[in-house]
Amino acid sequence: MPYDLPSAERFAPEPDKRPGRTAFQRDRARILHSSALRRLAGKTQVVTPGEHSQEWDATPRTRLTHSLECAQVGRELGAALGCDPDLVEAACLAHDLGHPPFGHNGEQALNDFAQDCGGFEGNAQSLRLLTRIEPKRFTAEGSVGLNLTRATLDAATKYPWPRGDHPTDPASPKFGVYEDDRPVFDWARKEAPGTRTCFEAQIMDWSDDVAYSVHDVEDGLHAGHIDPGRLRAEPERAEVFRVAVGRYVPADTDPAELAAALDRLQGQEWWPHGYDGSAVAQARLKDATSQLIGRFCLAAEGATRERYGSGPLTRYGAALVVPYETRLECAVLKAVADRYVMQRAEQERLRADQRIVITELAEALTARAPEGLDPQFRALFAQAPDDRARKRVIVDQIASLTDAAARSLHSRLTGHP
């Protein structure tokens, strides 16, 4: 279906400041200029900024650079399939805004703390931030966040259901909206058929997978954590496939299919069979990164066009088709980064320390709030009608912090270094 007038509606009507821009160009600009996007520069993606080896320095991606790269991938893929490129790019820029300090590790710690006030999920937090927390537009009832269009909010929603309502896995921790954000969520999803994600959200989701699977491996090579030569022999290959099964592919996936996927990638002339940090090696690795992104996106574009034809594909008029073999190749890359970067012993020690920081910070703010809260959250804390609402304000405050800000506030409130 094309982009109709309801798709461009805003929760709170407002006039255009400058004629000539589309509604989706305005949405993209609002996200690009938001403080929430800037804060992603201080949030770890996989390799901690500042890490380096004896051979070469690493300049790893942050949540911000990942979001920018995801947006570039999504914009081009969306445009090739007939979507509004600004709409897809806006969704990609917004997809990680709700991630707390320390990434998924911080997300788990905050979810434990928030169990009695609705839990915590980074995607639900992104919607909350876009529609409530990020200061941009206010009505008589209060903040409406960035006041984005219905289509952009829908495109940024990866899991369009509340906590515990996963359509196929009720035990899944993934959800996209807290109960007190249901009014704007229901408004954004008014045209949606059930829990189906719109076409633009599917492009955003695949672009996210492509960007982080490829770039996490690139960062791991740069940092010296991944030796591609080890992927040519057992038992290293079997260990990578073990990581993939149940985490990045269904639990009943045959490891032989993953082996075939890795073989296909290793058989490409551009595959990085070695890396020594030299300028030539860096250039070859960058070419491999580009080749992988192109391979994954062109496969999805071709399969989708084969099913739906050559016309514009938007909203609920199509579904993104990603070939099974392509998903396996992407999953193998995720498992490689997981095995050699995220599962390092020093990373587990770091994650344990990060969980302590988040837990103790939450406890300290609970005991001392509004001390420690930013002025914005201090006012919300004072206005909160009950303990549950006050706890959600504390969660919002912690989720807004960068890694360094979380450690600094933790140290100030607890006296621990």
Automatic annotation (TrEMBL):
Organism: Streptomyces griseoruber
Family: Belongs to the dGTPase family. Type 2 subfamily.
Keyword hit for Metal-binding: no
Sequence ranges of Basic and acidic residues compositional bias: 11-22
Record has Hydrolase as a keyword: yes
Sorted UniProt keywords: Hydrolase
InterPro entries assigned: dGTPase, dGTPase-like, dNTPase_2, HD/PDEase_dom, HD_domain, PHydrolase_assoc_dom
A GO MF label: dGTPase activity
Gene Ontology biological process terms, A to Z: dGTP catabolic process
Region spans: Disordered: 1-22
Pfam families reported in the protein's UniProt record: HD, HD_assoc
Name by which UniProt lists this protein: Deoxyguanosinetriphosphate triphosphohydrolase-like protein
SMART domains: HDc
Start and end residues of each HD domain: 63-213
HAMAP family in the record: dGTPase_type2
